[in-house]
Amino acid sequence: MDGLSGSPAFKVEVMFEGIRYSGALAEAARHSLPNFYPYRFRPGEHDPTGTGKAEIPYLMTTGDGTLIRVMGNGDSAWFVQGSRAEGYSLCRDGTADVIPIDFEPRHEWLAGKSSDNFPLAQAGVSTHGDMMIINVAPGCEYFLKKPDGQSMRCTFCAYGAPDQRTAHLGQVAGKVEIPELTLSHMRDAMAAVMAATEIRHIYLVGGSLTDPSREGERFLQLARAVRDSNPASIPVTLGSGALPAQLLKQFHDERLVEAVCFNLEIWSERLFSQVCPGKNRYVGYQGWIQSLETAVSLWGAGRVYSAMVAGIELEPEYDIDWQAAADLALQGADDLCSRGIIPIYSLYWPAGGKERSDYQLRLRSFFERLACGYSEIRRAKNLAIWDGFMCHRCAYMQLECDLDRVSAL
Ligand code: SF4
Known about the structure:
Blueprint: H1 6-17, H2 23-29, E1 39-40, E2 53-54, E3 59-62, E4 67-69, E5 78-83, E6 87-92, E7 98-103, E8 125-128, E9 131-134, H3 180-196, E10 201-204, H4 212-227, E11 236-238, H5 245-253, E12 259-261, H6 269-275, H7 277-282, H8 285-299, E13 304-310, H9 322-338, E14 342-347, H10 357-381, H11 400-408
């Protein structure tokens, strides 16, 4: 593949260039799923809020269902026009293109309550596109560990330790079991989501425990509870850390999940130990890959995934230029695919964001080269993304499903 074209090329363009503020974007923010990052007006930019920042939507969709994360950028040539009543469009300075878009709605279930009056928005259930994410124990124990003064958290991670921020979910450091009340709120939230919108994938995630066996026990409890609240048998993916073989066998024997995704995050032992010191210490690089291989032996090729954080290796401390980084990542993609493990590359968003324009340029070159090269690798090995796991309607920072879709058209 020489380069991106069509819908994947458009997605990359909008992801990297962002969208500048407009009245239509402000209107959309009032009924859309809110962005984690507020829009920050650049110096001199007209700021109708007078506060320097504004809420903007989180996700936009195009007519063919492509899902794209919205990044605010006052320097962007892209802007939104239209209204909720007449529909929104994305336009670009200097072109006559008017691209119809919509935004992921602020679903009504988010304002709902459980049977015991608990806010469903805090029940550990969320959606993007047609994927439901279950995350009832987000606190990660790696944040609590500092052997030799080095934090064990993954360097890019925005999660946190189990602490007062996870108290509403009943998650307490050192306790493996998920409280029954938390699962009851989760069940109510799942039912509300499924009644409000079409869900085609369920993804179980959570913070890590330093003992993978204990982490596996927690996910077993969660997966059993989810199975009992999934009357339509929507495909479920286990998104824990890499687990020991006997636990994987248990998930498989009980038919609790249809796919797994254990995030290696980065290829090469050197980068893994630097980017993911906790995973490296408590599971190990080879141990992680071995667990993924065990999963392939149980679920088969095409059902085993590993999310990778694409572009973190361009941070200066890793001392690698973007061409060498892309080559290394592609070498890893080829190796993993040869084992039946399918990596999924999620675009890394560097701290400092658009202020680091040199980084953005290198990141975009890296991401495009990786996406094209990786698409060829998967095509040669006949490894498409299974649409029970993920599709172009829910992958908002990844390109694999978009590339699969356009090549199948
Ligand atoms: S294991 Fe997961 S939750 Fe924990 S620090 Fe790494 S990425 Fe974050």
